[in-house]
Design a protein that fits this description.
Elements: H1 38-59, H2 68-96, H3 104-138, H4 147-176
């Protein structure tokens, strides 16, 4: 019987790393802006703050509840601010314990949540912008209504939607590439 003989090849030990050089490696797929990265945390905080400003501006007016589009804006940015705050807390936790949020179920939930909240925020901002233009330009009722506050709340809702869009597209791309 002619069996092959085992042969031992020497293997070099990997070079030792210095104490100051122990930076955790980042995978190539961890793109800034995705969940669990510093860019993702920055986007979530920006989404939260702009939605919160829009909400506060609308709620401090006494006559916003007389227009359905403004009530819809308040509901949409309330949901957006809660969603962004909860995901920002999740990102802070993931960054503090150095965990990756690359689980397909987690990414699916983030993608669906971002898609729903961004659609609601965008449609509410569009409806509020239409009503603001109607009140200001067509009806000339700015003497009775705080048009600039309506416009600023609508603008902050659009800014919140602009901040949600990269998060949604990056999560969707990550989900599709798995």
């Amino acid at each position: 019987m002619f069996a092959s003989r085992p042969m031992v090849h020497p293997v070099e030990a990997p070079p030792l790393r210095e104490l100051g050089n122990n930076v955790p490696r980042v995978r190539m797929k961890d793109i800034q802006g995705m969940a669990g990265t510093l860019g993702g945390l920055a986007l979530r905080l920006f989404q939260f703050l702009s939605a919160l400003v829009s909400l506060c501006v609308m709620v401090t007016m006494s006559d916003f509840s007389s227009v359905t589009a403004f009530c819809y804006l308040v509901a949409a940015v309330s949901l957006q601010s809660l969603w962004s705050l909860s995901l920002a807390i999740t990102d802070i936790y993931a960054l503090s314990v150095r965990r990756s949020l690359r689980n397909s179920v987690v990414i699916f939930l983030f993608t669906v949540g971002d898609g729903i909240t961004s659609t609601l925020t965008f449609s509410a901002a569009c409806a509020s912008a239409g009503i603001s233009v109607l009140i200001k330009n067509d009806l000339d009722k700015c003497s009775m209504n705080p048009c600039t506050r309506f416009e600023s709340a609508t603008a902050m809702a659009f800014i919140s939607w602009f901040a949600v869009s990269p998060s949604f597209f990056l999560n969707f791309w990550s989900l599709a590439s798995q």
